[in-house]
Fold each of these.
Amino acid sequence: MAQRTHVPAQEKPKQARGCGPRPPAQASGELYAALDLGTNSCRMLIAAPNGAQFRIVDAFAKSVRLGADLERTGHLSRPSIERTIRALQVCASKLRKLEVQHARLVATEACRRALNGKSFLAQVKKRTGLQLELIRPEEEARLAVISCAPLVSVESEHVMVFDIGGGSTELVWIDLTGVPGAERVEAVMRLDIRNRVRNGHAPGQARIVDFISVPLGVATLHERFDDVEDESARFALMSWYFEEHLAKFAPYVDLDVLEGVSGFQMIGTSGTVTTVASAHLGLRRYDRKKVDGLTLTERQIEKVIGRLMALGPEGRRSDPSIGKDRAELIVSGAAILQTLLRIWPTDRLGVADRGLREGMLLSMMSGRGALHTRGE
């Protein structure tokens, strides 16, 4: 899929496309930006190509709770809109200050579901100069998969990548049995979820068994059962309700998909997964370098979830490994995570502190030839 480039209208680069030859992107020092506006958070990365990866130049993350009360009203509220626009104004300022040449700015589930989603995006354009792209769930999942590809093990025959967001959860099941171990990471990078084929695939290529976007994330699931006072009952109801929405996911319908498989790997990319990893490590201050790429066993995850539930609301808010912003939503996220682990037991969960932004950056840079592979 061709990447779209968006920059604030008043800050377009002086040299437009087609105005003469340009140096290779990596040598030119050009900057790339990726912004992900979700149901709960607004996040942006600005980066420069660096070998086969990228170097982060600036970052922004803010809990804006854009989808607050969306489950009940069907609309984005005025306070949510104002919080979000203030955050986007900061992002626009950073893009202008750093003279970012290539950017992709996307909005996801909250704007897809809200009856006033399109008018909100028009208001964003008018007040910030940013043109946000409303992407489909398939594209959201594709970007998450791309970002997680480097974590795929050479021993994995089947991989499920899941992204627990604020308003939705995406699951992609990938069959790698026909791909040599050394080529599996690259095969995952090339996947196109929009053209998934359930029956048959070219020899040596990864196969998408199935993809699903469940319209439930940490924020929407929390809101739906917020009136249940007993926390244990609420957790059980959230888990049951989420599982009900997996009924059309092929690997759920046919649980024998793992029969005879010697290597099954789950990779989770979400604030829930990284928070559980941070709590497992006992980090008083979050450290991405220690969390991203970590492998957790099912037993380790169950132990952390049990401790989080035992802490109660007040205990979670004061626990430094969780943080105040995450404390309210970690229970609904844990309910989703535990449901997935119960349905498809695994002794290794790959923890990914990466997602749409990283996927967008890699995709944009790769499309412009800005990344240098080992063979170059």
Amino acid sequence: MNEQPASTWPILDEAHRALRTVVAGVRDGGWERPTPCTQWNVTQVLQHAAGDQLGFAATITGSGWPAYDPFAPDGHLNGADPADFAGSAMRAAAAAWATIPQDATDAPTPLPQGRMAGWLGAGACALDAAVHAWDIAVATGQPSPLTPELARDLLVVARELVEPLRQWGAYAAVVSGADSDDEVDELLRYLGRDPEWYA
């Protein structure tokens, strides 16, 4: 897989690093395993995550939309290498976001909210990649790829965006917290995920 270019948005670069790491760590037989996205296996989550990255990129560039519905992934990569499949989508997103200035106030996104500040749009793209990296990691017995610092930054983004998206099923209801929760647990619970989930 080719080296990932920097997007100029550190939060997005870190989220992409997380997703690349867990995709590379899936062992043979892991692609059919169940995930916290209850209706999807690992391959389907990968398809969804890659399709979303392409959607963010295409909204900026005007081309390169996914050739399939990311919200109805079929679980078949048709012979594509998973790392290349994910990597090409992340490279497209990174390149697209590299064209958005740091002080942008009106960046395009594929979200129902439409255009938004650049930091928030790039954060939304990062949030999508990072949470699905976690989904794949826990489904395949890998350590969480989310650092406390990344989780803290993503939670700021999530609190700005997630509530309107729950009505479309993009995120489940908040999961009740525990006294022992750290930054990663807090983010996952806010996104409707149980930090203790296992396959």
Amino acid sequence: MSGRARKTIIGGAMLLLGGLLPFLGPDAGAQTPPTARQEYAPAQVAQVEDADVKLGYDGVTERVISRPGASFIKVHFERMLLAEGDYVTVSSMDGRENRRYDNGDTWATSVSGDKARLTLHLERPIRESALLAKLPAYGVTVDKISRGFSAEEAAAHAPRHEESLCGGDDKKDAVCYAESDPQVYQHTEPVARLLINGTTLCTAWRVGAQNRMLTNHHCFETTRDARATEVWFGYECRVCGGGATREPVKVLGDEVLSTDQNLDYTLFTVQDFEAIKDFGFLELDDRVATKGEKLYIPQHPSGEPLKLSVDSDSDEGGYCRVDSPKYQGYQADTDVSYYCDTEFGSSGSPVLARSTHKVIALHHFGGCPNSGVRADLLMNAIGEYI
């Protein structure tokens, strides 16, 4: 029995047990829409923990927060009341990541690594701020932090279903293709990791030349959520095979321009667009995909540095291909299906055609076949914005 046949039988059994996902292809009879949304919800990549860190006008103007093994630290300001001209910075220990915060800020942008330095910067010498030291309302209090999981913790927290890894795991670090397939590698640059509310992850990407980002509706859907979301560009391994990562460029989400549950998309903007313009952009294709055409998927599965799905041990010739150009999504025929490997956290990834390097689908479901929303339908929905 072939691997494809075994997957179809397994999918049918899953449907009979719970009706969770559309495991069967479009020619296998009536399909059940994938209602088990939680199976492809944003992946948890961090844990919020209590903290009690204070900076003030009593002489304590710098503290280091340490969580051994953490992949990042993100601090929450419970209180920040500073004299005019004073401010706080949260920085990495080497100073390469360094951001300023003023009265009214709440969550700081994450700092990569397991240590973060908090510094209260005073416009006047502390001896001249002695009066403020006597006023308990003044100063800064950090009441909680979001601690990014280590690689081992992330693996333990990621709910995995082998049906989303169709056969063996054929994903590789994106940089593995830098020399062997430079055009494919170049089209990974506009793809970003999302850190949502300090704890969960999806993938997103720049669509068009303007300040526009696209991800799934099930990742987030409101402007409030967007502004609580960090967008990481350039988060990838330095060399093929893992290890050290490049320092990401982090910006915050801003305004949701359009969102839809049935097509499972959210189009949004980012703050500080100039900081990420050089990462380039992708284009939506306005055609229906062709059965059997080659494709590839840049993604951030389970919070990992940028990966690429190009190869597939479940497809003819060993390459990822379109299985069905019109497949059951949240509605009939709204998706493109494929056996290209994906995982939790890959939600929101672009699915690109090898022939044009344009986006033919917005990935959102696993199940082998995995599937994404058709780009031609997305173009009809958001073309006026991009």
